[in-house]
Amino acid sequence: MDKLKPCPNCENLKHPDFPCIRCYPLNPVFVRRPASNTNTDTALAAAEARIVELESQVSELQSRRENMHYDMLLWRGITPDFDKVCRSCSGAGIKVYGSTSTWRGGIGGQMMTSDVCDKCWGSGKEEKPWLSHRHAAALLKEKE
Fold it and tell me: What are 2-26's pLDDT values in tens digits?
């Protein structure tokens, strides 16, 4: 307790190496920094170089992610510049339905279920859908 000295601003007793509890929020001038040495400077320089490297990798990955949907459509044989991409499934040909009845309709369970898109029927192209599963099922019933 013999080290405590009165604060020059408010006369509160405090340790000489630390800020006053009452005055610190009003006057935050007390900041301790470690003494500069070569180990700290070297580590800081290495950390800054790593940050620059990681930022360049992030920008590269962001540009690749932006082109990924376009590349996936090309892989499926859909040219977004010429073909009208299905708005329901974004060209994937598959979408998630809110119940297990999917494109069939009727009673379904409470579970998210993925199945063929009911707009393009799997083609991914809005203007050139594949054969409708509903139509195919109706043809089968007719033949029976």
Answer: 677 887 777 777 777 777 777 665 5
Q: Is the dihedral angle over the CA atoms 92, 96, 100, 101 positive or is it negative? A: negative
113 DSSP β-pair partners: 97
**pTM for the full model?**
0.48
Both tokens assigned to 64: 């690749």
Distance CA(71)–CA(125), nearest Å, equals 15
Q: Is pLDDT larger for residue 18 or for residue 43?
A: 43
**Smallest Cα–Cα separation from 90: which of 72, 113, 112?**
72
56: pLDDT strictly greater than 90: yes
Instruction: Please provide the DSSP assignment of 73-141 as one string.
Output: HHHTT--TTTS-B-TTTTTSSEEEESSTTGGG-SS--SS-EEEE-TTTTTS-BSSS----HHHHHHHHH
Six-digit token string for 58: 């992030």
Backbone angles phi, psi at 130, to 5 degrees: -80, 180
Q: Which amino acid is at 63?
A: S
